[in-house]
Amino acid sequence: MLKIKIINKSHHPLPDYGTSEAAGMDVRAYLPDGPVTLRPMQRALIPTGLYMQLPSGYECQIRPRSGLALKKGLAVLNSPGTIDADYRGEIGIILINLGEYDFVVNDGERIAQMVVKEYTKVEWEPVDRLDRTEREDGGFGHTGTA
Fold first, then answer.
1. How many C-beta neighbours within 10 Å does residue 22 have?
2. In this structure, what is the dihedral angle of CA atoms 139, 141, 143, 144, given to the nearest 10 degrees?
3. Model pTM score
4. Burial 94-118 (b: 16+ CB within 10 A, else e)
5. What are phi and psi of 84, to 5 degrees?
6. What is the pLDDT of residues 65-94, one digit of tens each?
7. What is the pLDDT of residue 134?
8. What are phi and psi of 23, to 5 degrees?
9. How far apart are CA 39 and CA 32, in angstroms?
10. Residue 5 pairs with which residues in a beta bridge?
11. Cβ contact 97:77 at 8 Å
12. Who's near 72: CB < 8 A, 6+ residues apart?
């Protein structure tokens, strides 16, 4: 298990896993000044009151909650949002209401999930040509399968 330093300036529990096999931890809105209403197609940066120190070589991805997406049309606009290991500011969630009706974000509401992932740094190797493959440059549904 990876230990990550975190400061919680909200009065809500730390992000946690809903089940023992869940990959994502639920993140809550920190809205001490009151709820935020998102009208259809409106977006807002929702604070969490959380600050973290990720180890080098790790990122934290912010993703939508599937229930809110399906039932209310609520999405994380830059999904997945990336929090880099050198960022020390408050974690904010960019929400957008893609639904038909206003959505009210309340203090303490679970608004997104976060997944901590290890990543690999790359070093570019400029070449004049790439190795050939069966697929070559086919993309965007080129196989004819859905």
1. 12
2. -160
3. 0.87
4. bbbbbbeeebebebebbbbbbebee
5. -80, 160
6. 999 999 999 999 998 999 999 999 999 999
7. 84
8. -90, -30
9. 20
10. 53
11. no
12. 97, 99, 101, 103
123: tokens are 């070093």
The answer to whether residues 47 and 31 touch, using CB atoms and an 8 Å cutoff, is yes
CB-CB contact of 31 with 107 (8 Å): yes
Tokens of 34: 């009151």
- If DSSP states are collapsed to H, E and C, what string results for the chain? CCCCEEEECCCCCCCEECCCCCCCEEEECCCCCCCEEECCCCEEEEECCEEEECCCCEEEEEECCHHHHHHHCEEECCCCEEECCCCCCCCEEEEEECCCCCEEECCCCEEEEEEEEECCCCCCCCCCCCCCCCCCCCCCCCCCCC
Encoded tokens for 3: 């230990």
Q: In Å, how far are 9, 30, 106 from 33, measured between CA atoms?
A: 14, 9, 10
Both tokens of 6, joined, read 């975190």
Tokens of residue 116, six digits: 């901590």
| 78 CB-near residues (< 8 Å, 6+ apart) | 94
